[in-house]
Amino acid sequence: MMRRYLSVVMLSVMVLMIAGCANGKENSSEPTSEDVQVLFEKRDSKIGDNSAVSAIVQHLYLRDYIQEIQLQTKKKPYGVTVTYEIPDSDETPNSPDIHEKNAAVLFSLIPNLDSVTFMFNADNSSLGGTYYRSKMGNVVKENLEDISKSEESLSQFLDS
Predict the structure, then answer these.
(1) Structural domain count, the chain
(2) Residue 112's domain spans which residues?
(3) Helices (H), 23-150
(4) What InterPro entries does the database record attribute to this sequence (predicted)?
(5) What is the H or E stretch that residue 21 is in?
(6) Is position 7 within any domain?
(7) In this predicted structure, what is the pLDDT of residue 89?
(8) pLDDT tens-digit readout, 55-103
(9) Number of H helices and number of E strands within the chain?
(10) In what helix (H) or strand (E) does residue 121 lie, and over which residues does it extend?
């Protein structure tokens, strides 16, 4: 009887593992239309709402590599730091354009966010950068509020 029970449990675990692997996207680091919908729903979130901020970050580029999300909410300027673990050997879409897009979307969706810092840990090295709301419009050449005025505008910005 115990042997049969163990066999059923092992078979169930294998089926779940196979289903999970088969359910992956080609490049799950790129935002999909479902991600855009979730992002749009999080519009007007506050930096103090850690679950909303976390949900936003987890629907942006490079989400598969998130190691840690830290909020700076005790005093102004309010900020968020996202740390990514990116293996050197991994061919990830890791470029300044992607960082700028992620920062611009965060600023667009979180009105009281003042700074966004991205840290990248790769095999034996670390680097990062900070973006500021006051300068972001000049970087992306768009009005931050216009980026998330509709799902369509948000999708177009992420796809550009």
Answers:
(1) 1
(2) 30-159
(3) 33-41, 50-57, 96-109, 133-140, 144-147
(4) DUF4825
(5) helix 2-22
(6) no
(7) 59
(8) 999 999 999 999 999 999 999 999 999 999 987 655 655 678 899 999 9
(9) 7, 4
(10) strand 115-122
Tell me the per-residue pLDDT of 39-50, one tens digit each, with 9 for 90 and over.
999 999 999 999
Asked if residue 138 belongs to a domain, the reply is yes
Distance CA 103, CA 88 (A): 23
| 75, part of any domain | yes
Answer positive or negative: Cα dihedral of 38, 144, 61, 117: negative
Return the number of other C-beta atoms located less than 10 Å from residue 72's C-beta: 16
Per the listing, tokens 């005790």 go with: 74
Q: Is residue 112 part of a domain?
A: yes
| Distance, CA of 121 to CA of 60 (rounded, Å) | 18
